[in-house]
Structures are given as C-alpha cells and as structure tokens.
Amino acid sequence: MEKITSAQNSRIKAYAKLHTRKEREHTGLFLIEGEHLLEEAEKENMVETVLTDTPDQYQLKNMIEVTPEIMKKLSSNVSAIHLIGVCHKKQMKIEAPHRLLLLDDIQDPGNFGTLIRTAVSFGFDGVVCSRDTVDLYNEKTIRSTQGAMFHMPVVYADLSAYLDDLHKDGFTVIATALRNAVPMHEIEKKEKMAFILGNEGNGVSLSLQNMADERLFIEMNGFESLNVAVAGGIVMYQYHQ
Amino acid sequence: MEKITSAQNSRIKAYAKLHTRKEREHTGLFLIEGEHLLEEAEKENMVETVLTDTPDQYQLKNMIEVTPEIMKKLSSNVSAIHLIGVCHKKQMKIEAPHRLLLLDDIQDPGNFGTLIRTAVSFGFDGVVCSRDTVDLYNEKTIRSTQGAMFHMPVVYADLSAYLDDLHKDGFTVIATALRNAVPMHEIEKKEKMAFILGNEGNGVSLSLQNMADERLFIEMNGFESLNVAVAGGIVMYQYHQ
Q1: Which of A33, A56, A216, B39 has the least C-beta neighbours within 10 A?
Q2: In this structure, how many other beta carbons lie within 10 angstroms of the beta carbon of residue B179?
Q3: In Å, how far is A216's CA from the nearest CA of chain B?
Q4: Is B64 within 8 Å of B3 (Cβ atoms)?
C-alpha cells in the first residue's frame, strides 16, 4: 500500500485545497469523511482514493496510508476521523419527476443537507437549486445529508427558466410564503407538484412567488417563523406520494 | 459611560469564561449576541450588562464600551458582532400545559434551538429536557432559537419521574419511534399531549418508549430517518392546538 507521511506532499496539498468551493468546481473532486459516507459513495462508484491512518482496520480499494497529522489537516471534523474519501462529482439528472423541491438561495449548509435528507425520506424525485444556493459539496452540507446526497439528484439552475419548463410539463408550482398566502390544508395534492423554499433571511424572492401557481403558508400560532428545513419537512410530509 | 480597553480586565476574563457550561451554571449568567436577541432578553429584564465597540449607535441601559478585540474575544460568531449582552438566567415554570415537548438527550445545539423555536411557532406550552440534553445557554442553541427561548419555558428534569406526573395529570404521552409504532395519521388529537423526541443517534430510550401511551412513526417512503428537528416540526404541526 502506498504511504504518504509528509503533509507537504503535493497530492495532500492538492486535496487540502478541496475545502474551497472554487477548487472543487475546478477539479470536479470533493472530500467525504467517515465509514458511512464512504460506503454510500462507493455504491455509486464515486470514490477515487481513500486516505486512512489506520489501514489495518479497513479493506477498501485505492487506499493510501497517511499520518494522523495529515488526516487532521484534511478533516473538517473536530473529532478524529480515520477515513477520508476523495470522490469525483457525478452528473445528476432528474428523471420523470412528480415531486420536486426548489431551493431559492439557501445559505446554511446544515439546512441544505437536511432538506436533501428529508426529500429522500419523502420520496421526492429531485432538488433544484438557484445558482446562489450554497455548495452541495461543502463538508457541512455533505455531513447533514447523512449520505442522502448519493440517493437524490441535486441540480443547479436558473429557477425562473426552470419554472417555465415545469409549467409546460404540467406541474403545479407552490411557493412558501408568510403573507398573502393560502393555508396549507386548503391546497390539495396534485399529480405533479414543485415546492419553492426560500433564503433563510428573505424567504422566496418576489419574482418567483409571482411565477408560482399558489402561495402556501404553514398555519402557526401567532406570527412566527420556522427554520427553513423544518418548514420544508412539514411541506414534504404533507404532499409526499 | 464606563470603558474597558484591556482584554486582561478581570470582568472581561470572567465573561469569557461564560463560554463553558460549567461557568454558566456556577454563575447563573450567559452571553447573547446581536441586537435582536438583546431586545428579546431586555423585554424579560434578563440583561445585566451590554458590551459594545460602537457605543454611538445604541441607547441601551448598563452599556460598557469595549474594544473590537474584546468583542472578538467574547463572541462566538465568525463575523464581527457589535453588541453582546451579559444576561442572568431566569427560573422558568411551565403553567397549565396542554402541549409539551419532551427531549431525551438531544446533543446538537442547533437541533435543540430549532426545536424550541418550532415549539413557540406551534403554541406549545413548554419544553422538558432530560438532564443529559445539551445546554440551553450554549451560544449555538441560543442562536438557533432566534430569540424564541425567551418565549418558552424550558426545564431540565428526570424524564421518567416527569412522565409519571404527566400521566397523573391526564396527559397522553407519545414517543416517536421508527419500529413497532403506529403511523402518525392514526393517532388523534387529545386535550393534553406530550411528545418525546430522542437523541440524534439512538432515538428515544427504550425505558421511556415503554412508559409512553403510544409509539408514533412518521410515514416515509422506504426505511429512512429524519433529522430530529424536522421530525419534531412535523409532529408539532400535526398536533398543534
């Protein structure tokens, strides 16, 4: 087995750069941490190289032994991690969808990952993100998906153009909103539905709200607001197939 | 206005220690950051001292001017914060409840804070936490509540003993579970209901599950699991009054 002991090794330095979105986009590579995520990525044939500081414990393809210092340098986790995978991104395609989640500029990677995880749990067919949504391959996004990102096509698109296409395809598009909206229990299930959730601070942009067929609010006690991942969970539960 | 310029000042050093749970418990004090949280804490008369590095911009009681370096030392935020409040904890009491959230060893402060925020949004009367639940006064918990912690009694208790009392008080106690449980739509609203949510890794402990009147699962597509704050949101929406 190959062994790297210097944190100054050129490959290690290249991997360390994958903590930035720019470098992930440039190389098409990203890092994942821990056994569970590696198993899920392996099923999709996305793992190029596995780094470990405890090679005796694992039997995986393309393993490189490295030092604990190198693991620490590459990990975004506070506790010690013994497996890091270098993966290549995969082209994802949403096929014959009936339930879609549309994300308008979600900024928090924890919210983003949790929404993807919930979308898998409720059988949604894909997640479509505005271009300014946080990166799918951000370490915190990946961690929050709990592996669900390997089971859900997630694509980035211009949402206004995407909405036009959805309308042509017979979709009912629902924007979540706090004002001038219909309570959720009054909106019935339809065959093809897409739900827009908005940015943590500003909600769904007005232009997308105006393009939607309905504006939905979740009935609450008093004028409060929900975390976007919670709101998404309630909506996806309500309309799952 | 009093002014402190040295990060070695004894009061500043004492405030910096409030980042640990131990010191918060010892002193009964905790820190909050930003204008919104300060306003909410002020309404409850919980603010003892306000620290700022931009005193001209605010008119608040008991303000002390400090340097940006001191703000940085006391803040848990990556971006610059210009207001920090030193607050005292308040004895909280749940009065005449009809809807309660019971948390069994929730570990993630973001989940905990989000659950409190959601409980306010759906008119719950209180949150009861097992002793091993993460600290309410953790900076991340506070941030995730978005100020909701000042509108919701949150208490720590031995949950088994608490469940005994709830039963005597006519409560129906529902534990969330993934196995051997009833689908949520089959469980009807009752006058007094308490819902137990479990630890992120292990769910609700078996002993508490056995003490509950019902075990509830959220219907999903396939055997998946939900983030606990999302699961809590779905359950609280379903049963809010």
Answers
A1: A56
A2: 9
A3: 15
A4: yes
Q: Residue B63 pairs with which residues in a beta bridge?
A: B50
Is residue B58 less than 8 Å (CB to CB) from chain A? no
pLDDT at B47: 97
A59-110 pLDDT, tens digit per residue, is 888 999 999 999 999 999 888 899 999 999 999 999 999 999 999 999 999 9
Q: Which two tokens stand for residue B227?
A: 């983030």
In this prediction the ipTM stands at: 0.94
Q: In sequence order, which ranges of A90-158 are alpha helices (DSSP H)?
A: 109-121, 139-145
DSSP string covering chain B, please?
Answer: -EEE--TT-HHHHHHHGGGSHHHHHHHSEEEEESHHHHHHHHHTT-EEEEEES-GGG---TTEEEE-HHHHHHH---SS--SEEEEEE-------S-SEEEEEES---HHHHHHHHHHHHHTT--EEEE-TTSPPTTSHHHHHHHTTGGGGS-EEE--HHHHHHHHHHTT-EEEEE-SSS-EEGGGSPP-SSEEEEEEBTTTBS-HHHHHHSSEEEE---SSS----HHHHHHHHHHHH--
Q: Residue B13: what pLDDT?
A: 97
In sequence order, what are the beta bridge partners of B51? B64, B84
Q: In terms of Cα–Cα distance, which of B63, B60, B232, B30 is closest to B150?
A: B30
At A80 the pLDDT is 87
pLDDT-based confidence at A176, cuts 50/70/90? very high
First and final C-alpha spacing in chain B: 48
User: In this complex, do B230 and A120 lie within 8 Å of one another by their Cβ atoms?
Assistant: no
Q: CA angle at residue A220 from A219 to A224, to 5 degrees? A: 130
A122·B220 Cβ contact <8 A: yes
Per-residue DSSP letter, A67: -
Classify A225 as helix, strand or coil: coil
Residues B101 and B120: their CA atoms lie apart, in Å, by 11
Q: Which residues of chain A lie closer than 8 angstroms to B222, CB-CB?
A: 121, 123
pLDDT computed for residue B79 by the predictor? 86
Using CA atoms, how far residue B67 sits from A84, B7, B31, B36, B94, in Å, is: 41, 8, 17, 21, 40
Helix (H) or strand (E) holding A3: strand A2-4
Closest CA to A49 of A72, A70, A31, A25: A31
A58 in reach of chain B (CB within 8 A)? no
pLDDT, position B125:
98
Choose, out of A178, A200, A216, A224, the residue to mutate when testing the contact with B (most B CBs < 10 Å): A224
